[in-house]
Amino acid sequence: MADKRLLCDTAETERLVVHMAKGSKVRSMPWSCLLRRKSLLGLIVALIFCYFLIGRPEWVNVLDIDALHNDNYYTVHHVSDVPGMDELIENVPFVPKGFLVYSNSCQIKEVDPYKAEVMRHFKRVKYVPCKKLPPLTNVQFNEQSQSYVLSINGTAFTRYNVGSSIHCCYMEVHRVNETEVSYSKCQRFIHKAVLPNAVEGIIVKCTSDAGEIYINGHATIPVKKSVQQRLKKKEQQRPPSVLMLGIDSISRANLIRAMPKTAQYLYDNGWFELAGYNKVDDNTFPNIMALATGYDLKSANKECSPYEVGGLEKCSFIWNLYEQHGYVTAYGEDAIKINTFNYLKEGFVKPPVDYYLRPYLTAAEDKLQRTIVMGLPHCLGYETAAEHVYDYALEFTRRFLNDTYFGFFWTNTHSHSDISQTSSMDAYMVRYLERLVRQGTMDNSVVVFFSDHGLRFGPTRSTWSGHLEERLPAMFIWLPAGLRQSQPQLVEALRLNRNRLTTPYDLHMTLKHILAMSGRTNGLESLGTAPSCPQCQSLLLPVPEQRSCADVGIEDHWCTCWSYDKISTSSKETRLLAMRVVSHINQFVHSFRNGTLAKLCAPLTLSVVKSAYQAHRNALDPENMRTVRLTLVASPSNGLFEATVRHNQTDNSMTVTGSVSRLNMYINESDCIQDSAAKKYCYCWKHKKG
Questions:
Q1: DSSP per residue over 16-41, as a string?
Q2: Which of 82, 436, 602, 686 has its C-alpha lying 20 to 30 A from 653's C-alpha?
Q3: Where are the alpha helices (DSSP H) in 592-647?
Q4: pTM of the full predicted structure?
Q5: DSSP class of 58
Q6: Do residues 146 and 275 both lie within one domain?
Q7: What is the pLDDT of residues 79-120, one digit of tens each?
Q8: What CATH number did the domain enclosing 593 receive?
Q9: Both 234 and 207 in a single domain?
Q10: Coil, strand or helix at 139
Q11: Is 197 in contact with 160 (CB distance < 8 Å)?
Q12: Which uninterrupted H or E stretch holds 216?
């Protein structure tokens, strides 16, 4: 009783609130006593304030988090047939709680999605339909005529202000090259029209007495003779198809934070997570090239330079391999200006796949009513840009449901520029995955739901959580039931690999492994290794436990295998390392493209070292080598840079590993150059002189 009377003292109550705000565990707090205090309202306000200030300590679980925080927090339970982090499963090595990977050579800490340093910048965004009215037109594939039919939606028709008459027509969209499309004359139709099989996209317009009342677009997957001939060969037992669903810039932690319903759906429905999936380079292009070709950035630029017209065609992409072995292929990506193979690059001379969405989206961005969010297209007509891609993927897999296909579909617009925006697509994505199931797509398809990296810019990126999140993208794999039953060893390998260090090179080899299982090749060995990581392997085989970043083509700067301790930012040694980093940046820009940029960009000088950390050595790290991570500001750009250096304490030499990251925006200051590799470092002389 004495303890309870003490707790009823107002001063003691305030002390407890402070302890709780610091995350201290108070398990015997008598709420019945607190209810008798007039300060209850003040206590609740204090608790809410502390929650937002410091994040979610364990004690908050006694409250209704969703109600308390206006749905900004959702608890995701990691339940699936893949072992959880804190479970000891027979034949699966134990991983301590709080780690994604734990071995002598690599220890990756789990990121708390709800840590205060991130949550202060996160606010859930609601999904808002692009239009209040439903589309006036639709297209459907007619199995009997083997053609698409464009028709007026009778139900929607009554909701439009048609007046005394309505006139509708459609323009065919035709690809000229990667940046241009052409349009046919607008062809009138009444009620419906059969579209020619040469058409892969149309823009529809309708006018009435009052003028234009409707404009929309439709992409199609028409019959192609070349594809039909390739698919003629039918196996008695059809091998699985492959569907790649990628979302730009979404880390594993931000999937859980911003798309908790999607994450829970994946955990609850038998998807296999690769929690130790570590990116291999800075931005989208090199990480996608690693999984699509097996090349790192340096090798890709040498073997199939995207800066040369026709350069990309010199490399064999994974979809080319599938096409060569009898699969129909497709590629779709939103936000045409920043497309993976086109942003400051030449793109493809010819469509890289059988069905290529880029020409249609070029027309959609040109002709349809468009809204911009965070600098990228959001609504294109009646749907978001991302939904155009998802619709295309759904139709592609439906059209070839009974054939073999390889589809690669990538979205940027709802995730690229902001930590919160992708939350608007959470419920949509769950419904979309459920539609794939109902359609039968999942019955005979290996599906990869993945990202390239976490968010690379913005206030959260400068935090410790942001550093890790950027390097640990989301990665989930679905195996169809038939494959699980016929080859249980694949299931066991994916269970085991959940908490192993894995990379995009491993995903490249996995896609080759799936192709090899089709029986259409001479086995996996005949398809070769990932050229830039010969020791990387399929994720459908057990990955070695004692893997280090060096073993699998990950430079120190991108590696998440170490824990770090803070060190002095003002010490002579730290400043010397920072000055060497700035010198490294200047040398990179000066020598880039044979020195052609040297006269355009002002040299940088060190302003201040913002933070410095030294890595703990793992058991297999050399004793004379220390790894240091620095965040620094350089002038005159005020660029915020992050670098990881290897400091050899025997000879005092230093190596900058990977590329140096740019953490703040540089849109206007580097407009004198158009090369993405050097753009983040350049501060144009014209701005300095101005």
A1: HHHHHHTT---TT--HHHHTTSTTHH
A2: 602
A3: none
A4: 0.87
A5: G
A6: no
A7: 544 444 334 334 456 789 999 999 999 999 999 999 999 999
A8: 3.10.450.10
A9: no
A10: strand
A11: no
A12: strand 211-219
